[in-house]
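dumping this here before i forget
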Amino acid sequence: MRNDMKVLIVGSGGREHAIATSVAKSPRVQKIYCAPGNAGIGQIAECVPIGAMEFDKLVAFAKEKQIDLTIVGMDDPLVGGLVDEMEAAGLRVFGPRKNAAILEGSKAFSKDLMKKYHIPTAAYENFDDPEKALAYLENAQFPIVLKADGLALGKGVLICETLEEAKAGVRTIMEDKKFGTAGNRMVIEEFMTGREVSVLSFVDGKTIKIMSSAQDHKRALDGDQGLNTGGMGNFSPSPFYTKEVDDFCQKYIYQATVDAMAAEGRPFKGVIFFGLMLTDKGPRVLEYNARFGDPEAQVVLPRMKNDIIDVMEACIDGTLDQIDLQFEDNAAVCVVLASKGYPVAYEKGFVIHGLENFEGKEGYYCFHAGTKQSGQDIVTNGGRVLGVTATGATLKVARANAYEATKWVDFENKYMRTDIGKAIDEV
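structure:
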């Protein structure tokens, strides 16, 4: 068991800051690097100016610095095959290989997998010809959901109420290529109603261990209005993720997914994120992601009792069955502080004041998402700027703590939703 490990984290968002914060707690780690990182990560790790998609440079850096473990936080490098490149160079790396990351990289692949292995999901059809998609819509039930096949930063999903709207959506995705090459193929699926729950898990190719549940708030504005974003806030655990739901998912979804991937010759090692819809017919899989969610990581990881390095190494080594994964019996809420105008147009470069207020405060975290160092100052550098997370004995206490902590930090054009966790009151 080494206690002088050097760790490299790939990514630059709030999720990577949450991962770095957990890694920094491990007594086994001596030095953390992050590529490219951000200003917050820069306080606990050495940031190196290498982009997440610069595979050759990342491999060369990891070899030069004799990195013991690389953690890939983001979806693009996973889907692009960074893990394979690292492994080929003899490096240890946490995350799925390219042939397993397709679980997130192609919605058409994941829908076909679920159909083949009878994993509960919405009915669907895949299309790579817009004309055929338009013809299919003529006899479809509305509302209906259109999804770009590839990675679209969580935004390539359109819910269409009418045939006209759906036809326009096909054109947007497949002809206008609003989501780029992600729209070369498209999935059309039935619209499901119910509560959404996110469940993160660690997987070692055969064993799966479930982390705590969480619930995201995707829309930009209060009352779930406005455009879809990368996520405006989150809470964990979800009170709607009951024992009955867990029992069903354990039986029909979680292990079934891991076994299906292994049976396809695509063993999955890393984090599987299950986006679930709790319908009146039982839980259904909305989507899979092949990494920690953002901002799910920011509410789940602070509650994890285990040393994250031990867990990640067990995933790599296929020994996850020996890990007793434990979480605090508490709750966490994250409120995202964004730049006004996000996700469309916003200004950046404003000085952030008050970050020092989080120093030494137990149970409070300020995860940086879109920030950078500018001289002596830390300034805004993105749509989602900070994720203010607080823990508490209950969800309501955690929520009150998180909103109180949002007052500690300020920047020009600061914007947040004021109703993160409103569902807590409906329990």
